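FAQ
Q: What does a multi-component entry look like?
A: The components come first, one per line:
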Amino acid sequence: MEIRLSSILLVAALLSGCSWFHRGNKGPPEVVAEEPQGEPSIVEPQVTRRVVKTPKIKAKDFEVGAYFGALSIQDFGTNPVYGVRGAYHVSEDIFLEGYVGRSKAGTTSLEDVFPDITVVSNSGRYFTYYDLDVGYNVLPGEIFLGRGRAFNSALYVTVGMGDVKFADKDQFALNFGVGERLLVTDWMAIHLDVRDHIFETDLTGRTKNVDNIEATLGLTFFF
Amino acid sequence: MRRLLALVLLLQALHVGLAEAADKYLVLVVTDPYLEMHSGPGRGFPIVYVIGRDELVTVLYSRTDWFKVRAPRGQEGWVRRSDLSRTLLASGEPAPIPPYPDFASHRWEVGAGYGVYNRENLVTTYADFGLTSSLDVEFVVQQAFGTLDNRYIATIGLRHTFVPEWKWFSPTAGIGTGYQFIQDVVPPAPLQNNNEMAYVSLGARGFITRRFMWRADWRHYVVFNNQNVYEDLEEWKLDLAVFF
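Then the predicted structure of the entire assembly, as tokens:
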């Protein structure tokens, strides 16, 4: 393998060397014909040409924002969670979404009863995740506030996968979610989300799938 | 708190600023008997206003297949792409509504998906730039979740689509090189944390709808290390992507 590789490299080097030698052989020098000195044959137009520029339509398909809420880490209590999200709206029904979030786990019941026992280290209590999702707007519509105000909204479902880093270990995690997007204006939206991060862990002794459900409130901007 | 307030103010200023700066919006002439304006960017939202023939409509911005417009008397609403594309410029030329990118000759792809790398779960993302309609440069960043280790893989490669005109299923092949970073989870630690790699790939791609597409790939990696024997790895994956 090594010998073959190096021989290929050698041949390649030789070939490039050959082409280097050919570099010197230039064609005959080009003859530049001189313009005859005389009167200009074309009359210069006195009218300046008007350049018509049609303005471009700006697409506002991207959505970026942040969220805050509570994450229930199975066996480790419910704790605050915060994160950032970004979405690209492909069509009026489908969007692609990605987010990154973080929470810090509390103590298990075991640790509460026996304070000397530690299930995870202090640094391992951070629950950090990222996810890549596909979303579908199931129930688009309008929400009315009193007589004179209507806000566009959509109930959507998301499904995706990503990474959950918990107890200093990265786990492959699936997630399922339901959310409500309420557009306060056409460029700003409030989100209410419930999402479940599911992954397999053996942290508490036996291998099992754990559900980590979060409920969050978010604010996003379209651009 | 004050910083947050400042941020909100800044965002607001930015937004207002952008709106002010772009005071030259596209103005179109309605040629249909009327142009329907919906209350939201979706097929189910009710029609709240109509603009009559030969009236002017100002296009503010677009979201997916809908365009936010302003009527001559200031009412705002959303117009469907197919309706707006039948309007004209003041000069009589057809409205410059950008068409969907042609799948056979698109330039950019961005996507993500699931795969199996060395028999482990894989989360993968990629960006792909078309040099020609059949030759692409692709960048891939992915994470493999092993029971013994956690790997981050980044590759760059060339990808050839044999028949780009085939819309629903078109085979591809590629070669490339990359880098893998191994984070040890369960001892013993790997002999090397960083490896250079090379790969060959076979795959396929196809159109789904509008600017949505799928892509499947099988890859064979050769991992270069300081041992006598190179490591061979297999990977397959399925991506969903958006093309521009």
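Q: Is there any commentary attached?
A: Sometimes. For this entry: Residues 17-25 of chain A have pLDDT under 50 and may be disordered.
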